[in-house]
Design brief:
single chain, 471 residues, alpha/beta, Aspartate Aminotransferase, domain 2, 2 domains, seven-stranded mixed β-sheet, four-stranded mixed β-sheet, 41% helix, binds pyridoxal-5'-phosphate
Length: 471
């Protein structure tokens, strides 16, 4: 669905008064969950006594309690009470072949027989895996592994600054790039400033500039202003889908304009492909949008979730600016990490890409996403709701109360945004209670094993949810 249509439909949603799933229905859902999940509920209590906050996972649905998962296979996961769930969170996008995919596990176990992660020195899987990445992502001339998307973001910024000898980084409002201090500003929610930045000294993000998404003039104004100053701009860092896996949508030619402006002002363009890498196709967002960045960073699907999953790659002249480089010259950015590029990480990258290629994983996951979107839109239409669904390849969005479509910079919107967010949370819980795991009630990822029959189950569950939401 194009940007303009998405905005128009979001406007209809935000102009429609909302009613949430009523408290009585939620109370019944929570009671039913407690009844069918006694062990899982008890585990949740134990988690609260051992793990700070009761969970390590931002996107785990927390109402009425966080599930503890005992087993996973294909599209399914089972809780401690053996209740089955169909998973549309897919490890927040890291899973494309399906859970516990045996051909991948078998290959990694073969590597593990000869090599443990503790060899520290080079291993042949680093070469094999980067050769495989280069085949699909030609902008990668050199690469370095890191241990998470967050770490890869940090490294990319440091390498860019070392190369350009400039300090400022420009990012877009609402985009999430992990949790390193300098990027914890205006993340998740556009114009939220330092809302989520407790514990970060204010000086840490003084070199992070934020521009509104899709606003080419604002980006050019910022580039013009700061490239004239001594500190200068090292790079523009973008999530090619805008933010929230495309929930904050981009205009058609926005990325092209960003590329042109980076060239005009002699600033590096960094693509954060932690979500899009290998998911929008083997060549990721840069193949999908046909735009070549200077640096790219990966995470999640890079290793199919096998730890640790992060990497930065790109132009040779830029990537050579590392203290560990055996090549002479460069501006020497320090990067460290004991387990980077270990044999299991590198082999899981190689085998993930090889198996995705062999199984035509994208095509299958995309077909499943398109079927789900078609069925959801039919359901919403038949029920007379303004809600709508759309997909970008295997990323599915279903908009119901759409809190992010309202402008948080308007103080009058805060209360209604909170209410709309609560509405979406309730949908997430109501779906979970019927065995459907989503990315917090309004997003999902498909893998190559999702079937049309499973989509029908999703639709049945959503139909029950609609029956609870008053018109
Ligand atoms: C676009 C983007 N960048 C960076 C990250 C951080 O990756 P990690 O969770 O591996 O640190 C995420 C995580 O969701 C992400 O979506």
């Amino acid at each position: 669905m194009e940007y303009e249509e998405i905005q128009e439909r979001l406007k209809i949603i935000t102009n429609t008064p909302i009613k949430l799933i009523p408290d009585d229905d939620m109370a019944k859902i929570r009671k039913d969950m407690a009844k069918k999940c006694p062990i899982t509920k008890e585990m949740d209590k134990q988690f609260r006594t051992h793990i700070a906050g009761g969970t390590e996972h931002q996107l785990a649905i927390k109402d009425p309690f966080v599930l503890t998962i005992k087993r996973s296979s294909g599209t399914r996961m089972w809780d401690m009470d053996d209740n089955e769930y169909i998973d549309w969170l897919m490890s927040s996008g890291a899973c494309m072949l399906g859970h516990n995919f045996l051909p991948l596990k078998d290959e990694i176990i073969k590597v593990y027989h000869d090599l443990d992660p503790n060899i520290y020195y080079n291993n042949e899987w680093e070469i094999k895996s980067v050769e495989m990445i280069k085949k699909y992502v030609p902008s990668i001339e050199l690469m370095q592994y890191f241990q998470s998307g967050t770490e890869a973001d940090m490294a990319a910024l440091r390498i860019a600054r070392a190369f350009t000898k400039k300090e400022k980084i420009i990012k877009c409002a609402g985009s999430y790039h992990g949790w390193c201090g300098q990027l914890c500003v205006d993340m998740h929610v556009p114009f939220s400033g330092a809302m989520e930045a407790h514990g970060i000294p204010s000086g840490v993000y003084k070199n992070t500039l934020v521009v509104p998404l899709n606003d080419v003039k604002a980006l050019e104004d910022s580039l013009k202003k700061w490239t004239e100053k001594r500190s200068g701009v090292a790079a523009v860092l973008v999530d090619p889908l805008g933010g929230d896996a495309g929930g904050l949508a981009t205009k058609k030619d926005w990325l092209r304009s960003v590329r042109e402006l980076c060239d005009k002002y002699n600033v590096l363009l960094i693509f954060d492909e932690v979500i899009t890498g290998f998911r929008l196709g083997m060549g990721g967002a840069q193949e999908y949008f046909k735009i070549k960045p200077d640096l790219t960073l990966f995470g999640k699907l890079l290793t199919h979730g096998f730890p640790s999953s992060g990497a930065v790659g790109g132009r040779k002249d830029v990537m050579n600016n590392l203290t560990i480089s055996v090549e002479p010259g460069g501006n020497k950015a320090f990067v460290g990490g004991t387990l980077r590029g270990n044999p299991l990480t590198a082999a899981s990258t190689y085998w993930t890409l090889k198996l995705m290629e062999e199984h035509k994983a994208h095509e299958k996951a995309k077909n499943a996403a398109e079927d789900l979107v078609k069925k959801l839109n039919l359901l919403f239409e038949n029920d007379g709701r303004p809600y709508f669904a759309h997909n970008i390849e295997s990323i599915v969005h279903f908009e119901t109360f759409s809190p992010l479509a309202l402008d948080l910079s308007d103080i009058n919107n805060v209360e209604i945004i909170m209410k709309r967010a609560e509405g979406v949370d309730r949908i997430a819980t109501a779906l979970l209670s019927q065995g459907i795991i989503t990315k917090y009630g309004n997003r999902g990822f498909t893998c190559m094993q999702h079937t049309n029959e499973e989509n029908d189950k999703f639709i049945d569950a959503f139909e029950n949810v609609l029956q609870m939401i008053p018109k």
